[in-house]
């Protein structure tokens, strides 16, 4: 697992957002910024990727709820 704080500063999602704009980020990175923090053993970026994989893409994000995520 790669922690966000272990990524070089200019490659971190928040810093890339500020420096290069939203267009430069992947959906996974945008979710990492929204989530802000991960859990022990998994980064917010990895959580974003897992979430996108589970729901089938960013456009499906609007259709989920807590019960779906908890299943």
Structural summary, described in words:
The chain has 71 residues and is mainly alpha-helical. It is 48% helix and 0% strand. The chain has 4 helices and no strands. It has helices at residues 13-20, 27-35, 44-55, 66-70. The longest helix is centred in the C-terminal third of the chain and has 12 residues, at 44-55.
How do you describe this structure in short?
It contains 4 helices and no strands. With 71 residues, the protein is mainly α.
H/E series: HHHH
Portion in beta strands: under 5%
Individual helix count: 4
Radius of gyration: 13 Å
Structural class computed from helices and strand pairing: mainly alpha
Mean pLDDT: 87
Total E-strand runs: 0
Principal-axis shape equals globular
Task: Describe the SSE topology.
Blueprint: H1 13-20, H2 27-35, H3 44-55, H4 66-70
Which key phrases capture this entry?
4 helices; 71 residues; mainly alpha; 48% helix; globular
